[in-house]
């Protein structure tokens, strides 16, 4: 009887944790949809609170990505899916803007690039901890290699920047080369900047210490407020749904999030152009 009562008491302590991994991502997807409504229709007076709500999206998805990366059985395939999604999103945005010009909106949306680069640093952390534990120089070398890849991949962007100063090269060619360079995720091309990559990596490194994760999020939000002065600091409110996460997977819906992201952006962009 005493054991039963102890279990009931333990369970009641966590009843307020209402989000599993799936519902947490669905909640973030709703906020993302609101944010992109503002992006596409700001020129028609879409209210600012829509994009304020969207400041929570990146931290929530990065937190969910850290959880997914830990539990996935094949981390290399996980990164491959993100890389393919990054390529698809880059091509979709390029084709959309060519096929349906919209002077009010410039599509630079590609969160898959951020998740991919963050995933590389998560993999790097795994190699590093394993290498130190096993005293394996090979593992530590792999960790260093994974950490350097995003920097090496930034070289095509530098090359395009240098070519842009050459007046003899057509602007159309420069734009094409820039699009090709964007197919390679790097520290210079990730959406949200390298700070979001660092946040995702930190969520992974401290995934067993929830309050450490929250502290890192709050510190980064404070730094952003001081340096940027805009509304990005409001990502600190992502701490609330993260604290409500119960550690359970939920139904998964893995493919839904890979499909929903490009589809809803494309539909909103076309609707914005038509209107």
List the helices and strands and how they pair.
Layout: H1 2-12, H2 21-41, H3 49-53, H4 57-71, H5 75-99, H6 111-134, H7 137-152, H8 155-163, H9 171-182, H10 194-205, H11 210-227, H12 239-243, H13 254-274
Helix pairs in contact: 2-4, 2-13, 4-6, 4-10, 5-6, 5-13, 6-7, 6-10, 8-9, 10-11
Structure characterization notes:
It is a single chain. By secondary structure, this protein is an all-alpha fold. It contains 13 helices and no strands. It has helices at 2-12, 21-41, 49-53, 57-71, 75-99, 111-134, 137-152, 155-163, 171-182, 194-205, 210-227, 239-243, 254-274. Helix 6 packs antiparallel against helix 7 (137-152) and helix 10 (194-205) packs antiparallel against helix 11. The relative contact order is 0.16. Residues 1-10 have low confidence and may be disordered.
Concise overview:
By secondary structure, this protein is mainly alpha-helical.
């Amino acid at each position: 009887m005493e054991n039963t009562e102890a279990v009931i008491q333990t369970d009641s302590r966590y009843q307020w944790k209402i989000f599993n991994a799936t519902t947490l991502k669905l909640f973030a997807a709703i906020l993302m949809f609101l944010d992109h409504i503002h992006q596409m229709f700001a020129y028609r007076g879409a209210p600012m609170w829509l994009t304020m709500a969207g400041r929570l999206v990146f931290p929530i998805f990065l937190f969910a990505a850290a959880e997914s990366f830990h539990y996935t059985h094949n981390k290399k395939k996980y990164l491959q899916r993100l890389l393919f999604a990054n390529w698809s999103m880059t091509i979709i945005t390029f084709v959309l803007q060519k096929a349906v010009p919209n002077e009010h909106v410039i599509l630079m949306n590609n969160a898959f690039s951020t998740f991919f680069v963050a995933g590389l640093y998560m993999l790097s952390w795994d190699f590093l901890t394993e290498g130190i534990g096993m005293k394996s120089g090979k593992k530590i070398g792999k960790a260093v290699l994974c950490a350097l890849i995003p920097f090496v991949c930034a070289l095509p962007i530098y090359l395009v920047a240098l070519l842009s100063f050459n007046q003899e090269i057509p602007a159309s060619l420069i734009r094409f080369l820039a699009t090709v360079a964007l197919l390679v995720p790097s520290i210079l091309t990730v959406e949200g900047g390298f700070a979001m990559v660092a946040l995702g990596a930190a969520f992974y490194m401290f995934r067993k210490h929830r309050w450490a994760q929250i502290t890192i999020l709050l510190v980064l939000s404070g730094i952003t407020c001081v340096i940027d002065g805009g509304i990005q600091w409001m990502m600190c409110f992502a701490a609330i749904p993260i604290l409500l996460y119960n550690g359970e997977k939920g139904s998964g819906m893995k493919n839904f999030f890979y499909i929903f992201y490009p589809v809803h952006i494309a539909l909103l962009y076309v609707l914005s152009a038509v209107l």
